[in-house]
Every structure is written in C-alpha cells, then in structure tokens.
C-alpha cells in the first residue's frame, strides 16, 4: 500500500505542473543596438617574444651579446629583433670548411600593425668580414640559414612564407630573400627562426646556420661581418 500511495502523489504533482504551466509569450517588440570599435595603426615598440612560444615575451639572450634588447624600431611595420650568430673558435685549415653555429635559437621578429594586409618582405645582405685591424678578411666566406620556419601567437592570421635555404655571400652587395608575406598574410607579430635540432641542449651546435670558409682564406684572430636585415613595405611574391 505504501508504494501505491507514493506513485499516486507523484502523478498528481506532474498533472498539476502541466495544468498550470504558462503558455509561450508572443514577441511584441524588438530593438537593435550596435557594438562598435575603430582601429588605427600601431606605432610603439614591439618587444621581442619567445621564439619557441611566441605568446611569451622575453629578453633575448645571445652568446655574443647577452644584453641585446631588440631593435627598438617604432612604427606600424617593424623589424623588432634580429639575432647575431656566433661560430666559436676554430683552427685554421688548408681546405674549405663549414662551421655550425653556437647560436642555438637565432631568429628575427616582424610586426605588421598597419591593419591593411598589404604584405611585406624581408631581405638580407652581409658585409665582408673584417679582422681586428679593420681590414677585409675571410674572402669568399658564405653564411647559410636553412630550414627556416615561421611562428606566431596568432591562431587566425595567414602564415608568411620562409625561405628554406638562405645562402648569403659576405660581399656587401648580394640581396637575398628571407621571408615574405603576400597580401592578407603576415599580419600581427611573426617569428622567423632557424633552430638547431636540439636547441635546449647548451652543448649542441646549430647545423641549420653555418659559415663556410674557402681554402686558404682563414687568418688568425677575431673576424666580424655585419648582416643587414631589411623589412620592406611590399608584398611578397
């Protein structure tokens, strides 16, 4: 008997709810409002970001210049950071030699805050090496950057195209394409990087960045060349 009473009460409760439920309301009036925003081109300095995780800002560390703060460029289309590359100390050889870089995570950073999607491109040139006395040295030397890849914190922007092989003669005149964005590509902040196979291993070398010295070109002492990276307000092809 107890079970039957419980069931009857439950059914009565359901019936009551159904009986007194309100009918659907009819729509009597509508109104529209607007959500608006206006953007202008960005102009301030863009700080370098972590080349492994572009969502994180960093202070870049470079073996030859641990306090490098970035370029400090301002404007709506900027080259924010360019890595120096180091090739350590080597022995003079009588044959042509290629040396892998001790710089494990070299990268450049580009920011396009124009808001137009007009595209851009980066090229590079390298001066002749100079020795400690300022005289030209290492004649015929070539820098190479291979397996370049792009990265960004953006999950919606269209990716620019990185050159897979950049062969850069140290002659001061050769202009080589590095990375480019066609129209509607490369908006926001982008990294173009040349990491080694084990970039977090401090004892490893980076085989994707090399210096090739012709036979008979190496001389004693320190040598330095300047790489000029140029960001142009022109769409890639």
From TrEMBL:
Biased composition annotated in UniProt, kind: Polar residues: 64-76
Pfam families with a match to the protein in the record: WxL
Record region (Disordered): 44-76
Alphabetical UniProt keywords: Signal
Top-level taxon of origin: Bacteria
InterPro entries: WxL_dom
Range of residues in the leader sequence: 1-26
WxL domain mapped to chain residues: 29-235
Protein name: WxL domain-containing protein
Organism name: Listeria monocytogenes
